From TrEMBL, chain A:
The protein's name in its UniProt record: MrpA C-terminal/MbhE domain-containing protein
Keyword Membrane: yes
Domain (MrpA C-terminal/MbhE) ranges: 51-97
Protein's UniProt keywords contain Membrane: yes
Regions that span the bilayer: 91-108
InterPro entries: MrpA_C/MbhE
Pfam families cross-referenced by the UniProt entry: MbhE
Keyword entries, A-Z: Membrane, Transmembrane, Transmembrane helix
Superkingdom of origin organism: Bacteria
Organism for this UniProt entry: Thermobrachium celere DSM 8682
UniProtKB/TrEMBL annotation, chain B:
One Pfam family hit: MnhB
Transmembrane segments: 12-33, 39-58, 79-99, 119-146
Protein name: Na+/H+ antiporter MnhB subunit-related protein
Source species: Thermobrachium celere DSM 8682
InterPro entries to which the protein is assigned, alphabetical: CPA3_antiporter_subunitB (IPR050622), MnhB (IPR007182)
Start and end residues of each Na+/H+ antiporter MnhB subunit-related protein domain: 12-134
One of the record's GO cellular component terms: plasma membrane
Origin: domain of life: Bacteria
Entry keyword set: Cell membrane, Membrane, Transmembrane, Transmembrane helix
UniProt subcellular location: Cell membrane
Family: Belongs to the CPA3 antiporters (TC 2.A.63) subunit B family.
Membrane topology of this protein: Multi-pass membrane protein
UniProt keyword annotation of Lyase present: no
Primary location recorded for the protein, binned into one broad class: membrane
Length: 113, 150
């Protein structure tokens, strides 16, 4: 019975994932690189005209203060636009410290091996 | 230190620890709290605060460091920091938006200390989590070192 519920849940997740992937493929792309002149960007990158950038680059670079009221753009990206990333990062640290506690448990009790 | 013939003058290390530990604590807490205004953030400030544990160990030994910093308390505080981050991320759902949404970002002016909504709070949560976690890790490894020496 337990095995049945496991496979049922996995099948439901697979169906939802396939549905989401099919629906997302129908949407228009946010950034497809059509406006980027690659030869011009490679020859003189400092003078390249990037005022009409689109997609996530435009949102993160130009509208940071309007959207978050944070002056440090890196903190605004790390804690606001990419909050999931920081959540995973901090739980990676939590897992590493838990593993160290399991290995070095004897040192906590004052017993040397 | 295991060599008995060489007598290390501990006064130098002790006075250096006395001088640098408060500076490290205050600089680390400043970097955590000003994460949205100046370079730095939760991770970097937390590691700077945890370096004060190293200075206390170097100056006063393992017993004083564990009596001062309480490793069991640090271990529980790290889990509290992780839960704080999850709670501040869940505030978006309570305010009928999506997860990790900055719901009250327009509270203060840009440039104030208490501005930018959940960025400030999440920054503090991550800094608290990193300072307790890395401090606990350092004390754990120094405990192994102290047992090997004795």
């Amino acid at each position: 019975m337990k095995k049945f519920f496991t496979y049922f849940a996995l099948t439901v997740f697979l169906i939802i994932g396939c549905y989401t992937a099919i629906e997302m493929s129908k949407l228009s792309p946010t950034f497809n690189g059509e406006k980027v002149n690659v030869v011009e960007l490679y020859n003189n990158p400092s003078k390249y005209e990037n005022n009409d950038a689109d997609g996530v680059a435009n949102l993160m670079v130009k509208q940071t203060i309007d959207k978050t009221h944070a002056i440090n753009a890196v903190t605004a990206i790390v804690f606001d636009f990419r909050g999931y990333d920081t959540l995973g990062e901090s739980f990676v640290l939590f897992t590493a410290i838990s593993g160290t506690v399991v290995i070095l448990r004897n040192a906590m009790k004052g017993r040397a091996d | 230190m295991s060599n008995k013939n060489v007598k290390v003058k501990e006064y130098i290390i002790k006075s250096a620890a006395d001088f640098f530990a408060p500076i490290g604590l205050i600089l680390g807490i400043y970097i955590i709290l000003h994460g949205h205004l100046s370079p730095g953030g939760g991770f970097q400030g937390g590691v700077i605060v945890a370096s004060a544990a190293v200075l206390i160990y170097l100056g006063y030994g393992y017993e004083t460091a564990t009596n001062t910093l309480k490793p069991n308390l640090l271990k529980k505080s790290e889990a509290i920091g992780a839960l704080m981050y999850s709670f501040f991320a869940l505030l978006g759902i309570f305010y009928a938006a999506n997860f990790c949404r900055n719901v009250f970002y327009n509270v203060g002016n840009p440039g104030d200390l208490f501005s930018s909504g959940t960025i400030f709070l999440m920054n503090f949560a991550v800094g608290y989590k990193v300072l307790t976690g890395v401090g606990f890790l350092i004390l754990l490894m120094f405990g192994l070192l102290a047992n090997k020496e004795a």
